[in-house]
Amino acid sequence: MRLVIARCSVDYTGRLNAHLPLATRLLVHKGDGSLLVHSDGGSYKPLNWMSPPCRLDVEIPDAESAAAGVLEHWRVTHAKTGDALLVRIYEVLHDTSHELGIDPGLQKDGVEADLQRLLAEQVEVIGDDLTLVRREYPTAIGPVDLLLRDPAGGTIAVEVKRRGDIDGVEQLTRYLELLGRDPHLAPVTGVFAAQEIKPQAKVLAADRGIRCVTLDYEGMKGIESGAPRLF
């Protein structure tokens, strides 16, 4: 992972256009190829980003940009959509690279872990005639919550959250990209399952071809009007 603090401007072109004017920001270039642009506010969410599969090319600025003080251009292009980020670097304040290794993945607890367990036992919530392959199916970038098979032999990757937001959809997108390269699993489709799914996440999921499923936690536990039915 490369961490760069730089004075920069950022232009995004693709399904929509967006511009970040010149300011000091943190640029995170991750081992999976993604680039995230962070400010000192906004919590954990980047101001803009490019998800894999994508490629970063460092370019020498043209005469006009050089005259304006630009040191180099970072051009990040998505391999499938052609969407692009152009980062104009004016000054580098910090630049380090770190090898993080393989992450063991998030250890879930509480309601989210219960949701995953219950859904593994009740895969019919996702669809008819599905079979469970495995919970916590391992990949190089972390475990997929549930891996299912449909009657036609296709694979379904399910990401389970308490509250589904855009970050969860992005996480599932990365899993789908990786799993789809395995001929033993392809074709692979995605299901984003949560108790509550934010409207923005639903829009992004639809754009990525991912189906959303809203989970009834109390119903899955078998509780009705406070009286337990199953346990």
Automatic annotation (TrEMBL):
Keywords: Cytoplasm, DNA-binding, Endonuclease, Hydrolase, Nuclease. Coiled coil: none annotated. It comes from the Bacteria. Its EC number is 3.1.-.-. Residues 111-230 form the Endonuclease NucS C-terminal domain. Residues 2-104 form the Endonuclease NucS N-terminal PH-like domain. One of its GO terms (molecular function) is endonuclease activity. Its main location: cytoplasm. It is found in: Cytoplasm. PANTHER family: ENDONUCLEASE NUCS. Cleaves both 3' and 5' ssDNA extremities of branched DNA structures. Belongs to the NucS endonuclease family. This is Endonuclease NucS. The gene is nucS.
